[in-house]
Amino acid sequence: MRVAKLGFISIIVFSLLITGIGALFPSIILVSRAVNINKPVDSVSPYVDDFNKWNLWMEGAKADDLKVFVKDSAHAIFGTTIITLQSKQNHVWRYEWKQGGAKEISTLRVTPQTNGCMVQWEYEQHLDWYPWAKFASMMNDKIIEESLEKNLANLKLVAEH
Fold first, then answer.
1. E strands of 27-161, at which residues?
2. From CA 34, how far away is CA 53, in angstroms rounded?
3. Tens-digit pLDDT profile for residues 40-85
4. Helix or strand or coil: residue 128?
5. What is the C-alpha to C-alpha distance for residues 137 and 25, in angstroms, rounded to an integer?
6. Contact 37, 44 (CB under 8 A)
7. In CATH, which of 3.40.50.10490, 3.40.47.10, 3.30.530.20, 2.130.10.10 is domain 27-160?
């Protein structure tokens, strides 16, 4: 009986400790990357604005199962993710990426620079309070970061050639 009681109390204390540590993590994760492209804004914007052109620069989109399938000008499907254009103004596109119950907000900005333009892509992820959601966000951050860098490098290659 004492061992069971000690085990039960240990599980409760461990759970509270993990929840407390998870509470120290932020509930909103923002990952942002940018690339300079040696072309004017008007030359680069069509690659961002048109879902059909995303297949030219999105990592993995050259494979048949990961192509960006365009439903209409505001909706597309990338793998199992539904992409919805929420707003578009002044060379800033805001998208919602929804996979299952998880939602992420993505913003693409094309800003004029002296020698071309800068494309900035950021992801915003709102996390639940659950400790496992907060700890998993550390891995998501690295995965999204790497994906943004590859996609922006591909966009630079496509837009400059």
1. 28-37, 68-72, 75-78, 81-89, 92-99, 102-113, 116-126
2. 19
3. 999 999 999 988 898 889 887 766 567 778 888 888 888 888 999 9
4. coil
5. 9
6. yes
7. 3.30.530.20
